[in-house]
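Customer escalation, tier 2.

The customer says the design service returned an amino acid string that "doesn't look like it belongs to this structure." They asked us to rerun it and document both sides in this ticket. The original structure tokens are below, unchanged.
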């Protein structure tokens, strides 16, 4: 028999009780944005491979872009507030949390953490408002998991009197590159040291091509980038980035957002499965009345709540300045892996209908396959944690 007093997924465990009023307000605002501006069109956008660029300025107006940064037009919100926004946006679609991550946690964070005052004042306010879009050029075609092996080079510009730089190389899977106004490009200088450069995408020799044929993340943009004798002034270099610690500090910001965002996708799938279990009848009764279905739902719910609590713990650590890269690896590895398992179980409860766009589950499942790969594969995070536990690097 259907229980008319059944609680919503978030009401059962009430993690919201652990959030401050400010954090709850950010969460509410992000959920309203997702419900009103993303969900009405996301299935058709995914089907048609359409990125709805007009939402960028709206995200900026809501304060979501670079919201964890302080000053330069950024909101200065706490880590948990930012995480809650990521969760709500990814509950609609991973592509939109990815946009916020690429813009804020990667491109803006690189300039904020490592840039000159001129670079910050030139770009960050415009990016926070959504007037300028940024991308982050680290990954290369031959191996995203090994950035130390990058082949993109930066040499002194002899034509320009040796004061500027000339960039050459290729990057792949660079989010937003074809619509970006500015790119943060990572390259090796003549001494083999990794450096970052702020490159306006209108610079001659910079070319970006959207990657075709994607079966995942279809409502967002990822590109191949070619740099052919791209000349930039000396002032384009990020002065405070030297070595891989520069890009890695930004990747950790993005990974933190993924820890939260993946649970948004998981919640969406869980909610769809719960609702369907109450309305789909087999053998004369709702499938939600069957023990096997209830066991699946219970296990999915437990992993969802554990994931949210893990994200919240990492957020509180981050706010204290105590969060380590290994702890972020725990969150990224666990939460994406469990979100995928929740999506798969939700699909089984929905039966054949679960592969249609009547439900969000198959779209989330496809997107999460990409989320599992970027910002560190499962294997990379396992090796990070293995090194932490043993003191021995197995890379």
């Amino acid at each position: 028999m259907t229980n008319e007093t059944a609680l919503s997924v978030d009401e059962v465990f009430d993690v919201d009780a652990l959030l401050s009023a400010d954090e709850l307000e950010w969460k509410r605002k992000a959920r309203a944005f997702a419900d009103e501006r993303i969900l009405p069109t996301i299935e058709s956008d995914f089907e048609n491979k359409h990125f709805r660029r007009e939402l960028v300025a709206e995200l900026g107006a809501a304060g979501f872009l670079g919201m964890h940064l302080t000053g330069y037009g950024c909101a200065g919100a706490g880590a948990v507030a930012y995480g809650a926004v990521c969760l709500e946006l990814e509950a609609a679609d991973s592509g939109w949390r990815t946009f916020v991550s690429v813009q804020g946690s990667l491109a803006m964070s690189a300039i904020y953490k490592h840039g000159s005052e001129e670079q910050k004042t030139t770009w960050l306010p415009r990016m926070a408002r959504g007037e300028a879009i940024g991308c982050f050029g680290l990954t290369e075609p031959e191996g995203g998991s090994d950035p130390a092996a990058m082949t993109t080079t930066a040499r002194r510009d002899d034509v320009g009197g040796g004061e500027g730089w000339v960039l050459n190389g290729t990057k792949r899977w660079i989010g937003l590159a074809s619509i970006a106004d500015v790119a943060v490009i990572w390259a090796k200088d003549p001494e083999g040291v990794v450096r970052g450069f702020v490159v306006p995408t209108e610079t001659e020799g910079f070319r970006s091509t959207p990657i075709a044929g994607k079966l995942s993340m279809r409502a967002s943009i990822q590109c191949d980038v070619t740099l052919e004798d791209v000349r930039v002034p000396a002032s384009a270099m990020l002065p405070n980035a030297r070595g891989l610690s520069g890009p890695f500090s930004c990747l950790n910001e993005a990974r933190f957002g993924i820890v939260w965002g993946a649970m948004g996708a998981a919640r969406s799938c869980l909610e769809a499965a719960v609702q369907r279990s109450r309305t789909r009848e087999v053998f004369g009764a709702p499938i939600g009345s069957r023990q096997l279905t209830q066991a699946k739902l219970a296990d999915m719910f437990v992993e969802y709540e554990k994931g949210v609590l893990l994200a919240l713990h990492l957020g509180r650590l981050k706010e204290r300045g105590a969060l380590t890269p290994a702890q972020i690896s725990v969150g990224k590895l666990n939460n994406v892996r469990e979100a995928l398992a929740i999506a798969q179980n939700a699909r089984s409860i929905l039966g054949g209908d679960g592969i249609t766009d009547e439900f969000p589950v198959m779209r989330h499942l496809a997107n999460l396959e990409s989320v599992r790969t970027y910002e560190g594969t499962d294997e990379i995070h396992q090796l990070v944690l293995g090194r932490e536990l043993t003191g021995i690097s197995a890379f």
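Tier 2 assessment: The sequence is consistent with the input. The first helix runs from residue 9 to 13. The two ends are 54 Å apart (CA to CA). Sent an explanation to the customer and offered a walkthrough call.
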